[in-house]
């Protein structure tokens, strides 16, 4: 299949969109088919979004356009499109996105050389953020020292964790109860390994298990990544990784990008039912940061040079991130199979849940042509990692990993609580444009652990309130009201 190539104008800039989406089949992604000669009316949400130059939301919109045909007012869409397009074009007119893709298997030296060339072409430098702007839907840069929870002023909580973790046979239920309200930084890495099911409860078996699983990952790298690669899967991952968290210098380092590339490629090959899906790269990040903080305690991670760690330390971070990601995604793999039916199901559940909880807000969104799929698809696909700062994501995942019956159902209630949090602002918006800009750009840049604690508490309250009437979720998944 021919690879997609961007069309450039005379100045070498892409004429229409910031990133061109390859017109080919990608495992786990629905294909959008548009006839060449068909005149678009501009009356759909898909055409409104397709006109917006946005590097980060384009992939999500491709999914939406393939599985939904939501119609909105033509007048509203045209007004919104004109305003947003003009705003985005002003901010992107000087951006050069001529990104070349390294095809086939290359030696590591060539991979690094190509990556450095790509970074220069998009106006950035390794370890820096020049030429980069704020993208809607991406958390703003924060001091990653904020990963250290304010709750750690209480030494008694850390002591309780240490007592549980040092037990000869771990009481997993007790560990979950402790972790639900947040895990101290010093105990987080080992606790996450245990909650993810990567480490056994028996303390005597943990060292042996870690040694064996890390050796297994090295074998997988040789077997899949260092051998002949599946071209389409590798190409898509290779394109996505440089776009990841552009305002955080750590993720622009070549060493970090290659580590993520290996993790995602091997996971995709080992999960052929879904393959690689855009957004899974965001789900590696929390594990990577937690294990990096374990290897570099007390360091400011925003600009931390990963090459300063030993090769063994980097291998441990990479292997543990891979295995914990694999365990974490096992319960939600239906989110990433063809057409991502699991997410469609959950979006319908969220719609019905909000209709029952807050009919006025639900009708306000419906009246102005906002469909839940248009904003909550990304919330479900990326587990809110693009909506809240990274330290807040890590605190949220403390609770996700501690959910005794799996976090997949609980995340639905978290999304409901998240939407309800913005209720007052949403009710003040009187048109489609204002609603969508708020929903895709929620102002969470100053959020902290306390905000997440309130969010999960409200989610728990909602879950408890509906515990005696679970049929509302099953019925909602079958029909879109």
TrEMBL record:
InterPro entries: Rab-GAP-TBC_dom, Rab-GAP_TBC_sf. GO terms for molecular function: 14-3-3 protein binding; GTPase activator activity. Pfam families: RabGAP-TBC. The keyword Phosphoprotein applies. Keywords: GTPase activation, Phosphoprotein. May act as a GTPase-activating protein for Rab family protein(s). This is Uncharacterized protein.
């Amino acid at each position: 299949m021919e690879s997609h190539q961007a069309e450039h104008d005379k100045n070498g800039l892409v004429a229409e969109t910031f990133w061109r989406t390859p017109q080919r089949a990608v495992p786990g992604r629905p294909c959008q088919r548009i006839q060449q000669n068909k005149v678009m009316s501009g009356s759909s949400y898909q055409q409104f979004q397709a006109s917006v130059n946005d590097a980060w939301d384009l992939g999500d919109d491709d999914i939406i356009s393939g599985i939904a045909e939501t119609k909105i007012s033509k007048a509203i869409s045209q007004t919104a499109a004109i305003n947003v397009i003009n705003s985005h074009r002003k901010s992107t007119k000087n951006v050069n996105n001529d990104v070349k893709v390294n095809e086939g298997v290359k030696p590591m030296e060539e991979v690094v050389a190509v990556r450095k060339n790509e970074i220069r072409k998009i106006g950035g430098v390794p370890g820096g953020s020049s030429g980069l702007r704020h993208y809607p839907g991406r958390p703003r840069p924060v001091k990653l020292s904020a990963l250290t929870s304010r709750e750690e002023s209480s030494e008694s909580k850390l002591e309780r964790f240490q007592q549980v973790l040092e037990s000869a046979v771990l009481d997993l239920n007790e560990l979950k109860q402790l972790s639900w309200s947040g895990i101290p930084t010093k105990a987080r890495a080992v606790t996450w390994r245990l909650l993810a099911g990567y480490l056994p409860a028996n303390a005597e078996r943990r060292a042996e298990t870690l040694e064996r699983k890390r050796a297994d990952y090295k074998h997988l790298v040789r077997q899949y990544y260092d051998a002949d690669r599946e071209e389409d899967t590798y190409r898509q991952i290779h394109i996505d990784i440089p776009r990841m968290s552009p305002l955080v210098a750590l993720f622009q380092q070549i060493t970090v990008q290659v580590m993520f590339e290996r993790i995602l490629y091997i996971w995709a090959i080992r999960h052929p039912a879904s393959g690689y899906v855009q957004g899974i790269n965001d789900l590696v990040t929390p594990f990577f940061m937690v294990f990096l903080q374990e290897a570099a305690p007390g360091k400011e991670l925003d600009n931390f040079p990963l090459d300063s760690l030993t090769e063994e330390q980097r291998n441990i971070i990479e292997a543990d991130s891979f295995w914990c990601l694999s365990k974490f995604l096992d319960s939600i793999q239906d989110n990433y199979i063809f057409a991502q039916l699991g997410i469609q199901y959950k979006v319908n559940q969220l719609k019905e849940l909000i209709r029952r909880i807050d009919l006025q807000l639900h009708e306000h969104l419906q009246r102005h042509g906002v469909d839940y799929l248009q904003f909550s698809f990304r919330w479900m696909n990326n587990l809110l990692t693009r909506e809240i700062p990274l330290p807040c994501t890590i605190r949220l995942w403390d609770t996700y990993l501690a959910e005794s019956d799996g976090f997949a159902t609980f995340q639905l209630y978290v999304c409901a609580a998240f939407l309800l949090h913005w209720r007052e602002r949403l009710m003040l918006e009187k048109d489609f444009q204002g609603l969508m800009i708020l929903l895709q750009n929620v102002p969470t840049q100053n959020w902290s652990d306390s905000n997440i604690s309130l969010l999960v508490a409200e989610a728990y309250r909602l879950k408890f309130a509906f515990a005696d009437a679970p049929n509302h979720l099953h019925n909602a998944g079958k029909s879109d009201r």
